[in-house]
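ugh ok so i messed up the first submission bc i forgot one of the chains. this is the corrected input, ALL of the components this time, i swear. 349 residues overall. if the numbers dont match what u have on ur side tell me asap before i send this to the collaborators (the ones from the other lab, u know who)
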Amino acid sequence: MAKKDNPFRVPENYFNELEEEILKKVNQIPKKRFFFTEFKSVFKYAALVLLLLGISGLLWWNLPSKNNNLKQEYVELKTNKSTPSQLESELIAEQKVANPTTQNQSTTDITSNQETTIVKTKNLEQDNNEFFLSEEELEYLENYLQDDIINDYLTYNEVEL
Amino acid sequence: MTDKELFDLLKHKNTQEKGFSILVHNYKERIYWQIRHLVLSHDDANDLTQEVFIRIFQNIDNFKQESSIATWIYRIALNHTLNFIKSKAQRYKSSVKSFEDSMLDNLKADKYFDSTDIELKLQKAILSLPEKQRLVFNLRYYDDMPFKEMEQVLNTSESSLKSSYHFATKKIQESLLEEEKVKFDFSD
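and heres the new structure output, hopefully the right one now
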């Protein structure tokens, strides 16, 4: 095989025996193949599908809870609408008396007007609450502050006692 | 038989054994000599050649046809042999270099080696080369492997291989001239 002067030698008939020896050893290797290597590609895709299922499962797990919250909020809103506070009811009644034509309006318009009134009412309540003074606060003001300062404060904030 | 035909035989389970038998028949000598020139001992070369072919059989499914079958086989043989030299050196708690010196001593007593003075000196000079130069020299000088093929086996550029071969032959010539004042002809 070696073209140059090859000082290395091999036993007689060595290469034929080598071939036989190699094939004999190879045939002794157990034929059984590990199940995973046999279906490696199938497992690869199965793992991918499982991963996608896992991700979508996670998303699905989170979404329903949000939907439930929204649904709950919607039900609460509906319930609040169906039972307006006393002040809201009075305002709606006043509005009906003041604008009798609204009775002929479509249900959608009436609901819309009612909603606007409710929002306005809530804003009004909120404004009043901002300048509401409790009895203790008033007592404190009367006892410890001078009258003109109290008057200035009340006048500035447009609070009627 | 072409690489493609051999690969087709090796790929299918039913024809794999036949394909492997052809592969062993075609490459056993080249692989043996490639290993023998690196480990020097016949017994070690015999064991390693068998192990290489068993490893090839076990990894047939991993062969992706990115290179020729010959290149793939040579690469396995080369890596297996270099690992053997390193692990044997570690087992004897010696450096690779001193292990290679012991290989030379064993060679003197090897009945499958023409133990002439000049051949021993040549082997000593080859063993004194750095690993890469020694591989290139052996593959080129003994196995007549083209640089193009060597480029793929050793994963090194052709110009670098040519330069390694040039330096290797020069060092060997100098080494031999120093001792015997004998000049070898290393022309391709």
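quick check: The mean pLDDT of chain B is 86. that seems consistent at least. Residues 154 and 183 of chain B are 29 Å apart (CA to CA).
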